[in-house]
Amino acid sequence: MTTPGLPLRQLLMSLGEPLVELQAAPAGLDVLVRDVAILDPEDPATAAAGELVLAIGARGRAALPALRAAGRAKAAAVAVKLDAPGQADALREAATEAGVALLSVRRETRWEHLDALARAVIGGPDTPEAAEHNVGDLFSLAQTTAVLTGGIVSIEDTSSRVLAYSRSADSAEVDDLRRLSILGWQGPEPYLSKLREWGIFQHLRSSDSVIAVEPHPELGLRRRLAIGIRAGAQPLGTIWVQEGSQPLTEQAEQALVGAARVAAAQLVRRRREVSADVRLTQTLLTGLLEGSTGPQSLATHLGLHQHRPATVLAYAAIGTDLNRSELTGLISVHTAARHRGALLAPIDTRIYVLLPELPTGLPMATVRAWAQEVVDAARNHLGVELRAAIGSTVTGLGAVPASRAQADRILDAMGRGGVVPEVAALIDVQAEVLVSEVLALLQERPALRDPRLSALTEYDARHGTRLGESVLAWLDALGEVRVAAQALHIHPNTLRYRVRRAEQLTGVDLAQPQQRLLAMLQLRLPADEEQ
């Protein structure tokens, strides 16, 4: 259901630069926005009059059809994400030609958050959307608090990162701490050190009361009030009110107490929403890796391009003495440092990392180096030995299960032993993987085994002999008796005797190539698999 509409200018003021940036407005900023529409990348490019069209998954020039369709339908605006700065020029030109406003959305912004906030802003404060998502949330609270206190407000988290702030009509009223905090989204360390020295932060963490910070002109600081945001005994952040050219109102302290309580409720709800978002992401990612969920759900949820290269890394710890949470955290941090969009999912005993939207032509050596960094860090910092497998690079999210399957094949082969690297792609261990899979087949289907070789293994187990092991060493050495005997630490004549004895007991003719090949495979099975 549409509404009478909200001017694009007002929508942009409510959403603000943290979410979107205006790229073009050929029809001006007074065009009315009446509704929000999500354009799925697999759907035909359509729009309706007055809509804000969220072009999910259509990055860069791929958004051109959406712009043209929006222009034909007289939509209000189209919002897109840009892969590169240069893409804005072509899109601005297309938007101007189509007569529709173009908004660029920050890459970190989640589409569902923008959708919910835009609907709430357009619907007005009395709509269900506004009630559920608390339109304007902390920014709205900061502005309201500024009006009630007569000051300039900022809301920060426990690390002094700015979460929201009020608008100031006169920039001359803003002091250095406020200005630098807004520009850097975090208070500058020299000022923060002074606040710690004066005991301000200690008070804010331990008390519910308002504290005043007197002006320090030599430091560029004006007078301000502050209060901690708390949920019970847990600190959640702080609200700061800087005095401008006029003194703060008499009700400023009372207003701050109320604002802190409202902010606490909002931050608690935000944390719950983030937790729910993380759980949904994990569910969709696990479903994609296992092949039970299609790519569209995850792509839409995270704003990912479905048809960009992707690959899966798989990690497995050697041994069972392992702190899963520490290892998961380590892998997350190292991988995120190399690829912003990396996603992690523990499944059973393995930890998988999906690398979506990889640059076309990214060298395998680069991905291998990323995985090696994780393996080295796990050993150096956690004392954990890891194996890492690099799945195939696939053309899109739809083929991610195949990449994961290949990574699993590699880890399975690594787990069977042999000389393999810590980090491997299929090209590194092709032979080991194929032999591993043949052995797995022999394990699963005993009927495929040669009963004579099974009898030899049983004979060794009953009599404590090593005939099967000796035959395998001789075959691995291509019949070089001295080489095989040296590997077993026995005399060459002893080896010759054992090979003859094995042939006599089983009737296997090791002069036949096919029987040698089967013996080389079957005798690699663990002894308990043959009993």
Automatic annotation (TrEMBL):
Keywords: DNA-binding. Residues 297-412 form the CdaR GGDEF-like domain. GO terms for molecular function: DNA binding. The keyword DNA-binding applies. Residues 469-525 form the PucR C-terminal helix-turn-helix domain. It holds the Pfam family GGDEF_2. InterPro entries: CdaR-like_regulators, CdaR_GGDEF, PucR_C-HTH_dom, PucR_C-HTH_sf. Belongs to the CdaR family. This is DNA-binding PucR family transcriptional regulator.
